[in-house]
Amino acid sequence: MALKTVFSCQNCGYQSAKWVGRCPECERWNSFVQEPAAGCDLPLTPRGIAELTDSCPPRKLSDVRTECPLRVATGIGELDRVLGSGIVEGSVILLGGEPGIGKSTLMLQVSAVMSRDRKILYVSGEESANQLKLRSERIDASFDKFYIVNETNASLIISYMKQLQPWAVIVDSVQTLYSPEFGQSAGTVTQIKESSALLTAAAKALGICVFFVGHITKEGVIAGPKLLEHIVDSVVYFEGQRESSLRVLRAIKNRFGATDEVGIFSMTDQGLKEIKEPSYIFTARRQSLVPGSCVMAALEGIRVILIEIQALVSPSNYGISRQKAMGFDPNRMSLLAAGLVKNIGINLINHDIFLNVVGGVRVDEPASDLAACVSICSSFKDKPARNDTVVAGEVGLCSEVRSVPQIRLRINEAKRMGFKRIVMPASDLNDAGVHKNMELIGVDNVQQALGEVFT
Asked: Right CATH number for 71-274 from 3.40.50.300, 3.90.960.10, 3.50.50.60, 3.40.50.150?
């Protein structure tokens, strides 16, 4: 017997008996998909899976005994840092990222470490068993209690979970899942949402940790991660650029920990390698006394990384000046350049400005403004900045230097990496504390900062 269906808006939840092009509630176009109507008797539902465990009647919050969640370390320090010292038993984690960024490689390496003591089930909907075997040999990983299965049917995956009772299940990827109770093909909004809901309910009922691997499109909707953020316990994004081997792992949502930590990896021919000293990676090959270069103390979560910012300012040969940035917000760079012309008196008109963040990383925090201004002025004046100086500060439209958070962490990292001076907002001097062998220079505007950094 065919299921009764309705058309639901994927943006606001408005339902209609027939498909419409534009939602009358939120006025979004092409957001309606066909879904089973409420009250339909499905063969397998999250409610039916939850009946695997004993139901608990309502009780007072004061009667609930608090217990610290059991965490298990993955053996990969950068991943444990992001998740909050390990994986909580029975949690559901979504690992999102662009195709080819290294999500499957990371999950395979996690499986190799954790399968030494615990059963791990790897559900592959994209790769065959032979392909997984070849990839495991490439990264030189050994597996003990590691099981693989090529399956995309959510109902069968749940039966494997009940039969094998693994400690963790890795689903690669969530776009390949489907539930036969729904008529849509795999990868549609309904299939991704309903299939992941079934596996999430099974994970909670059986106490099994589940990893969902999801690809991200430009809009982040159809591919899955944006749809699943409210279902899972933790959302972790794997970021990076194809031109660079650097990979950054950051938590967007974490019910069992903070979201202000980041993990840093390097993609090699033998898999992902942890980078425990990222500041050294970004500044090791820096040439001293080169115009257009400046080192800043960037804050990634609660982790400080020293990053070099380079600028190239040259006269425009075509009469129309160009401004381009890699790893830096180009709109922000335009505002900073306009401030230098208006407030500092630097004639950047009819000049091309190119800004680059060394190492292929992207810097988004406002504390990078001062380093960008110093780099641009250094290239324009052909004067190198001092190689023993680090800068950090937000720059306003009037070229004033504003306060930045966690100034002590920035100073400690600069001192640890061998720098002797830091140019910082004058308003942060009271919070900086006392640091031996480190000169703290407070400035109120960009003009004062330029006088301190140039040799």
From this structure: 3.40.50.300
Residue 146: strand pairing partners: 120
For the chain, what is the mean pLDDT?
Answer: 85
- The sign one gets for the Cα dihedral 379, 244, 324, 367 is negative
Sign for the pseudo-dihedral over CA of 43, 49, 55, 58: negative
Helix 189-206 with 154-164: angle, nearest 10 deg:
10
Task: Kindly state the tokens that stand for 347.
Answer: 């004639």
Neighbour-count burial of 389, counting CB atoms closer than 10 A to its CB (0-12 exposed, 13-18 middle, 19+ buried): buried
Q: Is 285 helix (H, G, I), strand (E, B) or coil?
A: coil
Query: What pLDDT, on a 0 to 100 scale, did the predictor assign at position 395?
Result: 96
Q: C-alpha dihedral over 108, 113, 117, 123, to 10 degrees? A: -10
Q: What pLDDT sits at residue 39? A: 46
Per-residue pLDDT at 89 exceeds 60: yes
In CATH terms, 281-453 corresponds, of 3.30.1330.10, 3.30.230.10, 1.20.950.20, 3.40.50.10680, to 3.30.230.10
- Is the entire prediction scored with pTM above 0.90? no
Where would I find the H helices in 236-284?
278-283
- Span 216-221, mean pLDDT? 58
Structure tokens that stand for 228 in this block: 């699943």
